[in-house]
């Protein structure tokens, strides 16, 4: 039986994602008014927006109940990710990295929902008049974590 992975370093990675996410959101909240636009790069603005729903503003206009639904759901998922991370074996390092990124991002958005009732988004990528839905560092970490999880699954299927 393979030796268990030591999760401490991966939990620190999750904490790093969480801290960077929260620091970036606090900075944006201190500097920007809602919908204020600061061009950053061609095709990228910083723009403070709030999302009361899930990804792509799903359920954002549902009347308020979604806050508690997403707090509960995110809490359960985060607990599941933590337990999963604690049970990994030494050879599952890529899975551990992906879980750490997803966990850190999920907790970052959870803190927003508990504190503010909504998630702070501020990264606005666009092409001409078409804008991708605004997002934040937590969302980015979750996306990269899921991509790494798919890669880990693919690598595992090949072995």
Automatic annotation (TrEMBL):
EC class of the enzyme, as a word: hydrolase
Family affiliation: Belongs to the peptidase A8 family.
Protein name per Swiss-Prot or TrEMBL: Lipoprotein signal peptidase
Residues forming the catalytic site: 121, 139
Keyword presence, Iron-sulfur: no
UniProt-annotated location(s): Cell membrane
Organism field: Thiolapillus brandeum
Keywords: Aspartyl protease, Cell membrane, Hydrolase, Lipoprotein, Membrane, Protease, Transmembrane, Transmembrane helix
Catalysed reactions, semicolon-separated: Release of signal peptides from bacterial membrane prolipoproteins. Hydrolyzes -Xaa-Yaa-Zaa-|-(S,diacylglyceryl)Cys-, in which Xaa is hydrophobic (preferably Leu), and Yaa (Ala or Ser) and Zaa (Gly or Ala) have small, neutral side chains
Domain of life: Bacteria
Single GO MF annotation: aspartic-type endopeptidase activity
Pathway terms, separated by semicolons: Protein modification; lipoprotein biosynthesis (signal peptide cleavage)
Assigned EC number: 3.4.23.36
Protein function: This protein specifically catalyzes the removal of signal peptides from prolipoproteins.
Membrane topology note: Multi-pass membrane protein
Gene that encodes the chain: lspA
Main location: membrane
